[in-house]
């Protein structure tokens, strides 16, 4: 049965023409010539229009957020956690509708759209627990009758710049933590997926209003790079959390660094799986194929390279080629399909360009790529997942192309495989498939993977929210979601209290009047 998109839009409060910004229940910014139209890559249809915020709109949002922060930071953290719990409950109720809109606006499979909303629910649950923690340490003073400890305070306004590929989950990783920590948020979603942003803003705004919270705690602002630049250059936004390309991240880091602000960057990956001769090849196949073609290769954790031991190279390649022959490409809302479209025709051009470059460098395509044509592919965004045999040092292999292109590299020794794995500018996710304990532990040791995420017998994508998420080198060094990633959203204060009758100085310094 064809999904009734209109009823999903109605349920989520998406209109034909939507406002450019929101501070909660207040929406503003009229539609002008600078409207963004959201087209679905699924069928090429225009879903709705959204206004673009002006500099004046941006100023208004900042003022509301500053005012809201003065109140929100006085709400006890467990109470803030309870509001985030209610956000999680609202997401549970809206999982089907929001997951479907994610799938339709972004193009990922319906299962992955639901998975993304589940990831939002999970981070809300995590943040609720955190709201009763946010622990600081206590330490022993060198002076008698003195007490020392540290505590964590909120920063103020957290600016969230998110990408099209996880249009809602990445916002929630940031927002759920930032909010329990006592911050207020301003979110600039990708201009490629503004409607899922509007849907989330409607959901959270209702929860905040039901709890009598003021406008300005959770804000949304629609625009392109120029709105992002207003945020990154704005001293009133102490933390910018940005997800996207390495090129974008470098610009954000430079602007935020120039004003000594904080940035939390989650940028490109070039993730590899090492397939050892000691691997379970059936398990490896699922991890590799899901990693490479899931979200049509548009996750920052997508598997881009397979580094395969020479003894099993031909056998594993044959399995891969066979499984690619069975992939069903098409409407992602139809659960029979494995792979949906790329986000837009610009992404298709980048995919074709990378294939050409790979061939020019000597890449041997064992599964050919290409753009699918015909009635079912009318958006022009559907491409064939492809596989090429390459050398790790090809320029194109060093580059992250956001598309389902998988590179095969042959290795002889584990150290050589690890050198290939680490021999790219990015450092997000990595994995080894092996049943050999020595190999697995070596890969995880400090002589092994240099990435922020290193897995054994699991692919590179699909991290759980409980761990800190992010990577090294050109991935930007940030950590989001689980573990102690919350610390990025707070400032640390060290407190020393003297309850003695004298004022002894540290380091034994004598100073008598
Ligand atoms: C991203 O692609 O920006 O680990 C995030 C994963 C997901 C998150 C990906 N949980 O693949």
The name of the CATH superfamily of the largest domain reads Aldehyde Dehydrogenase, Chain A, domain 1
Mean pLDDT level: 97
Number of helices: 13
The domain count comes to 2
Total strands: 24
Instruction: State the secondary-structure class.
Output: alpha/beta
Bound molecules: 2-aminohexanedioic acid
CATH architecture of the largest domain: 3-Layer(aba) Sandwich
Subunit structure: Homotetramer.
Pfam family, one: Aldedh
Organism: Pedobacter mendelii
InterPro entries: Ald_DH/histidinol_DH, Ald_DH_C, Ald_DH_CS_GLU, Ald_DH_N, Aldehyde_DH_dom, ALDH7A1-like
3D architecture notes:
The chain has 513 residues and is of the alpha/beta class. The chain has a 7-stranded mixed beta sheet with strand order 3-2-10-9-8-11-12, sandwiched between helices. It has a 7-stranded mixed beta sheet with strand order 15-16-17-14-13-19-20, sandwiched between helices. A 3-stranded mixed beta sheet has the order 1-5-4, with helices on one face. 36% of the residues lie in helices and 20% in strands. It is built from 13 helices and 24 strands. The chain is globular and about 80 Å long. The protein starts with a helix and ends in a 15-residue tail after the last strand. Helix 4 runs parallel beside helix 5. It binds 2-aminohexanedioic acid. 2-aminohexanedioic acid is lined by residues 119, 165-166, 170, 243, 299-301, 461-463.
């Amino acid at each position: 049965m064809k999904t009734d998109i209109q009823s999903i839009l109605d349920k989520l409060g998406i209109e034909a023409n939507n406002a450019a910004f929101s501070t909660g229940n207040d929406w503003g910014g009229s539609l002008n010539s600078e409207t963004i139209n959201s087209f679905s890559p699924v069928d090429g249809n225009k879903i709705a229009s959204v206004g673009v915020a002006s500099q004046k709109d941006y100023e208004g949002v900042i003022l509301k957020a500053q005012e809201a922060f003065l109140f929100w930071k006085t709400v006890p953290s467990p109470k803030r956690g309870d509001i985030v719990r209610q956000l999680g409950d609202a997401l549970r109720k809206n999982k089907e509708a929001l997951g479907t809109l994610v799938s339709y606006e972004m193009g990922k499979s319906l299962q992955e759209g639901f998975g993304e909303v589940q990831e939002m629910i999970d981070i809300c649950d995590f943040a609720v627990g955190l709201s009763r923690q946010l622990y600081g340490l206590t330490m022993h003073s060198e002076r008698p009758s003195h007490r020392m400890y540290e505590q964590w305070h909120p920063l103020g306004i957290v600016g969230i710049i998110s990408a099209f590929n996880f249009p809602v989950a990445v916002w929630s990783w940031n927002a759920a933590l930032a909010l329990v920590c006592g911050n207020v948020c301003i979110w600039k979603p990708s201009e490629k997926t503004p409607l899922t942003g509007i849907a989330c803003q409607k959901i959270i705004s209702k929860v905040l209003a039901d709890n009598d919270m003021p406008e300005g705690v959770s804000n949304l602002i629609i625009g392109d790079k120029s709105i992002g630049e207003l945020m990154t250059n704005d001293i009133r936004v102490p933390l910018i959390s940005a997800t996207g390309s390495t090129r974008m991240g470098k610009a954000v880091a430079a602007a935020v660094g120039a004003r000594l602000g904080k940035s939390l960057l989650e940028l490109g990956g070039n993730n590899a799986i090492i397939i050892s001769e000691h691997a379970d090849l059936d398990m490896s196949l699922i991890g590799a194929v899901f990693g490479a073609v899931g979200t049509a290769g548009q996750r920052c954790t997508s598997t881009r390279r397979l580094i395969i031991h020479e003894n099993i190279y031909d056998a594993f390649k044959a399995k891969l080629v066979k499984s690619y022959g069975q992939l069903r490409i098409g409407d992602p809302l139809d659960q029979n399909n494995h792979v949906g479209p790329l986000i837009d025709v610009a992404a298709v051009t980048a995919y074709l360009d990378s294939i050409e470059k790979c061939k020019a460098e000597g890449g041997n395509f064992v599964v050919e790529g290409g753009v699918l044509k015909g009635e079912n592919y009318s958006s022009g965004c559907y491409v064939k997942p492809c596989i090429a045999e390459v050398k790790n040092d090809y320029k194109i292999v060093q580059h992250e192309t956001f598309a389902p292109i998988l590179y095969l590299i042959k290795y002889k020794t584990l150290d050589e495989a690890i050198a290939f794995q680490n021999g790219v500018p990015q450092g997000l996710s990595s994995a080894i498939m092996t049943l050999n304990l020595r190999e697995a532990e070596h890969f995880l040791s400090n002589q092994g993977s240099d990435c922020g995420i290193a897995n054994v017998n699991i692919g590179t994508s699909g991290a759980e929210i409980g761990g800190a998420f992010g990577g090294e080198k050109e991935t930007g060094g940030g950590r989001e979601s689980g573990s102690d990633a919350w610390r990025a959203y707070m400032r640390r204060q060290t407190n020393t209290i003297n309850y003695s009758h004298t004022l002894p100085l540290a380091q034994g310094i004598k100073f008598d009047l």
